[in-house]
Each structure stands twice: as C-alpha cells, then as structure tokens.
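Hi everyone,

Forwarding the result from last night's run.
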Amino acid sequence: MKKRTVYGSVTIRSLILLTGLLPLSFSWGQSDSETAVVKRPNFVWIVSEDNSAEFLKIYNPDNPEGFGVSMPNVEKLAAKGLIFNSAFSNAPVCSTARTTLATGAYGPRIGTEFHRPYKLATLPDDVKSIGQLMQEAGYYTSNNAKNDFNFTEKTKTTVWNDTSKTASWNGRKADQPFFHMQTWKDTHEHTLHFPIEDLTTHTNDHSIKNMDRFPIYPDTALFRYTLERYLDNHVIIDNKLGQLVKKLADEGLLEDTFIFYFGDHGGVMPASKGYLFERGLHVPLVVRIPEHFKYLLADDMQDAQNARLDGFVNFIDFAPTLLKLAGIKPSPQHDGRAFLGNDVSKKSLATRDYSFSYADRFDEKYDLLRAIRKGNFKYIRSYQPYYPDGMFAEYRYKQAAYRQWKELYGNGKLPMTQSAFFRPKSPERLYDIALDPDELHDLADDPQYHDELVKLRTMLNKQLKSMPDLSFYPEAYLLENATNNPVAFGQQHKGEITELIDIANLQLQPFDVVEKQLAALLKSTNPWQRYWALIVLSSFGHEADVFIQSASTLLENDDNVLVRGRAAEFLGIVGKIDPVVTLGKMFAEAPSDIALLELLNIATYFHESGGWIFPETLMPERRKALSVRALGYRMMDTWLTARWKYISTEN
C-alpha cells in the first residue's frame, strides 16, 4: 500500500477550527486532482462479547496478585492510551446495547429497548446509525461481523459498506479513512453452555481456588470451573486482538487509527448479562491514541500512557465521540456527548458521574427495570417487584452453573445473600458501589440514606418522563401502534406516559395513602391506567385485598386481554383464583404472539411461586405474520416452546 503523507498538526488544527474538517457532502469518489484530500483519523472498535470490566487484571491494579485475567495485548493498547474505570453499557444485553452504540440514543426513547424485537423499529430520518453518519462524511465502514440491531435500515445508505465474516478496511479507496467494528464471540454466553462432563474431561488453564471474589455465588466446583473457562476465553480474545493490531501496524495504519477495545455489556457468569447490576453494565474500555492524531485530544490527554480516568462514559457517548474526532457535525438526536476531543480535558471528564440504564424483555422473560448511577450511589427501580430476577429464561439456564444455583436454592441450601436472586425484589434498591461493589446491602430503607434515595428517585423520574420512556405501554401495544415511528409516537403520547409513570410510582407510597386514587384508576376509561393500577395492586399483595371485587369485575368484563391478565395476576397473588383455569382461557384470546408471551410470563411467575402446572393442551396456534420481520419473530417458536415445556412440567 502506498504510504500516506502525514500532515502538519498546525495546518490540521486550523482546518478543524475553521471548517470542522470536511462538509458532510464531501465524496471520496472524486479524484485527487478534483479535491484536496484532508487526512482524517481512522477508527477501530474491537468488541469482546459479554464481558465485565471486573474480569480483566488491568482493572485490578491495586492488587497484582488478585482477581482478573492478564490480557497483554489490551495492556499494550493502554500503554499508549487511556483506561476508563467507569464505562457503562446502557443496557445489559446484546441487541439493545449494540443498538444504543449504533444510534447514540436511549432505547426506550426510540423504541429499541426489547431484546430480540418481534418487529424492527423504523427510526425517523434524523436518527441514523454511526455507520451511516460516517459513510455520509466520506468514511469507509466495515463490520466483522455482528450487527444485532433492533431497528430497520430505511435509507439508501446501509449501516456498513461491508458487513461479513471477511469484512475489513481493505475495501476502501486510496487514502479514504475508515471505521471498522470487529466483534469476537469467544467470551459470549454460549461458550459456557458446556456439558457437565467437561469438569472431568477438560482442564482449564486458569485455576480458581474459591469464589470469595463473588459472594453472590455458591462456592462449588462447577462455579469455579465455569469462571475458569470464562477467563480462558479472554485469552483467546486477547490473542485475536494482538493479530488485528499487528495488521494495522504492518500496513502503516497504526498511528493513524484510534483503537477502542470494550465489552458490549456485562459478563455471563450468572446474574450478570441481562441484569442492571454493575456486573451486567460495567464494561472494560481502553482507547489507544494514535501518534499522528493525538492533537485532536485535550492537551492533558495527548501523551497518555496507562492514564486512568474515573469520569463516567456511557454507550450513548460513543457515536458523538467518533463524530467529534472525525470533525463531523454532531447529531441532534444523540442523547450522549463526546468523551474525547480537544475540549474534553481530564478535569472536565472527571465531573461526569451519571449513568442511566434499562432492562425490558430479555428473550421470553419480561421484567421492567430502570436504574440510575450517580457517583458512587446506584438506584434500581423494579416496576414488577414480585418477579424474581431468577425467573426462568431458557437460554440463560443452558448454563450448568445457573441450573445448579437454582437447584441449591430450591433445596434450601443457600444463605440469604446467595438466594436473593430467586426471591421477589424491592420496588426500590439503593447501593453504595464504593463500599458494596457486589450490590448486596440495600440502603433504601436506611433513614441515613433517605435524602439520597429521594434525590435519585426524582432524577430517574425526570429521565423517564423527559424521553419519554415507551416501555410504560405493553410491547404488544407498541408493536401495533408505534414501531413505524417510535420517536414521534413517544412525543405525541408524552403526557399519557407521564401519567402512567406516576401511576406505577404509587407502589412507593403506603397503601392507605394511595387507596382512593387506585380505586378511581381501576374505573378509568384508559386501559393502560387500569393495567398499571393492577400491577400496583400486585406489588401490594394482600394489603390490597379491598380491591378483590374490583379486580374480579375487570377480569370478567374488561375488553383488553392484557388488562384481564394483570387482574388475574393480582387475584392469583392473593389466592382468589386458580391461575391455570383463568389464564388458560385467555391464551387463545391474545391478539398476537407477543401478547401471548406476556400472559405466559404471568403463568411462569405462578409456576415458580406456587407450583402451578399449565398443560400443553392450553397452547394456541401461532399468530399472524408481520410484513417486517425480525430475529424475535423467527425465535418466537423457540420462546413459546420453551415456556410451555417449562410451565407444563414440574421443575
């Protein structure tokens, strides 16, 4: 390859200030004689799937002999760059997290919050993926090879110039800058779906003597073996990363390229991926600074070597960061802000201490949660607190350690710390992450922390209402009414969503304070007000027995099957109905597969909490097809089959 000229930093800095580098209409299709080529940085995102920061030794610097796997090639990147101590995925699961990366926007605002959507969301014209924005500015974009987005492409510009298992930057034109995303699956969840026989037939390279570092887990041979295998997988990732960096160096591109190494969300030891704990959100992030473009950074970051930064970085910030470094006009639809640039100093970055995260449907498992991290304090809001985190999801329980953990719980062999995953949750939880990194000690009821609780509760409600958060409608309703333009739908219904959030928050007050309000809501002409009032009743349980008759009336007469489903949920919790008979009549009335899945989630709750068995004869036929299909549509048979197999047998 022809060696490219390195331009002087003074000239480039002037261009940055005067022109923002290049207009968006600049085309790399023009010849050098037609257009003066301005050199711009390349970008490579290297992603290891399902990977929490805590599993890397580089994140345990104060104890060289302590926990974590050594990744020499990642450490070489850090030697010429930055280690972000507080980098967070906004969602703890693949498709939702990657969609946030691609769009720079919160999933619940743009309708991409459900993992494996039944129908892909169509985004408005001004919400474009980072790949599209970079292409329009003249970059060659390649992806090897995982997209996993929750939205459909809707412009002539595809997300990538090349997305395949062989994709690289080699397809670009001479002197064209590139953005390449490289994903490796060697740490992905499926790699821990090994047969139990492996404990005796396969030896791991790492050796774990005990599980003291993770007090939520039982200290068993299987858990130790699973963690060992997971750490071994990190070494595979590191070796591949080293080969990719060598390729950049061999082609003379290394000092022209910003390299970002990070995980796409938290790791896959149990109770991590899919959950709003730090182990599900806190990701490694290391950025190598190229010599030829270090001037694009603030003065105190240009010559960084193993520089550790504590300021919070979120996935919504990644797209704005690339645009800023590439000199591209920022998108007004981005919810984040750049964390690198000539005006982002270490001091200014250190002031960033806020992260918002969300968890919705995870395959066939429904559970609505939101969280705020502000400094060292973490606030988790559970809107259906009677659902335990450990509710069955077929793919999760392919991991033998998950199955053993649940079996030990069922046999009463776990202490409270290790059994909490399988018990109902509190509507509000508060943790001091500095003192309690494993989120074991809930401070929500501690008077000493009341002011902190109220502050974070207020902050979360402001976040949800300002977006607004679409998940306060059932997914089945959004499917029929919002997916053609979720952003516009949210803005049109912002007032109603605010009301639904306020109704959901009634569960945070004493029952006698909200009783009259709930009575009025159960008679509302708005079905989603009735829907949320019933969920609030379920969270109160027997405290709300006074509403048994009102709920029974809704169960018999309401014209919305999901409202009737929530009435059945409450009445089942207080022991007034047979859930099998009552829900069994509703399954065939569900207007869509996704509505049926929500009803089956309620059935799964009764199966686990009360041992109710739902015969497979109750299973109806599949529902109508969709014109725009997504992976969730193709997986629906798997989800329905898994749910029926689980709730129709003793477990």
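DSSP finds 23 helices and 17 strands in the chain.

Cheers,
N.
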